[in-house]
Design brief:
With about 210 residues, this protein is mainly beta. The protein is about 5% helix and about 35% strand. The protein is elongated.
Length: about 210
């Protein structure tokens, strides 16, 4: 599956207080974004964030186009009802982050810890998740078009009313997931996973 990469070639050193376009932010919270600061109703466009801890920064109504996050802490942030296009999250802490009713197009999650991530009623178009922890993830009435999963821990994930036909889960950890019949139909799994899923559905297997 081909995913468009973020265009961040023109980024220069930036500051939250001055610009959120074509800017790069590195390794610290800037003076204009001290704990308790709020970034509201903006679009991050062509930006790079490296090593930024957002735990004390409020991000509200923030859209993203051509954005890279590397080694950032975005835990418990809410990007609900937002638009994300060509965004890459690499080695980020994202526990409890939510994308409820949001659109994610050409978005990559690489090596992220994103347990309890919430995609309720989100619209995912060309999204890739690789080598991450998405345990207890929630897909509820989520729309999926082109989802790629590789070595993702989905232990305890809950998937409800989310058609996943032709999505390949064969390289993922699926123990403990809860999934309804509508969502299950047409997914791709390996033989070992099939054995566990059949048991989960209450079917008794004669050894």
């Amino acid at each position: 599956m081909k995913i468009a990469e973020p265009d961040v070639k023109q980024c220069v050193d930036g500051d939250f207080g001055k610009a959120v376009e074509q800017s790069a932010f590195y390794n610290e919270i800037y003076t204009s974004a001290q704990p308790g600061a709020s970034v509201f109703d903006l679009t991050f466009e062509s930006c790079i964030f490296k090593g930024i801890d957002f735990s004390e920064i409020k991000l509200e109504c923030v859209d993203m186009v051509d954005v890279v996050f590397e080694n950032c802490n975005l835990s418990n942030k809410k990007f609900n009802k937002q638009y994300l296009s060509r965004v890459k999250f690499s080695n980020c802490r994202m526990t409890g982050i939510s994308f409820i009713d949001s659109t994610l197009k050409d978005v990559q999650f690489i090596g992220c810890r994103a347990d309890y991530i919430n995609f309720t009623q989100a619209n995912l178009k060309s999204v890739s998740v690789a080598e991450g922890n998405f345990g207890s993830m929630l897909f509820f009435e989520t729309k999926i078009k082109n989802l790629y999963l590789n070595k993702v821990d989905l232990y305890g994930a809950e998937i409800v009313n989310t058609p996943l036909s032709d999505v390949d889960f064969s390289k993922c950890r699926l123990e403990g997931i809860r999934i309804d019949e509508k969502s299950l139909r047409g997914i791709i799994i390996d033989k070992f996973q099939a054995h566990n899923l059949v048991k989960m559905l209450g079917v008794k297997i004669k050894e």
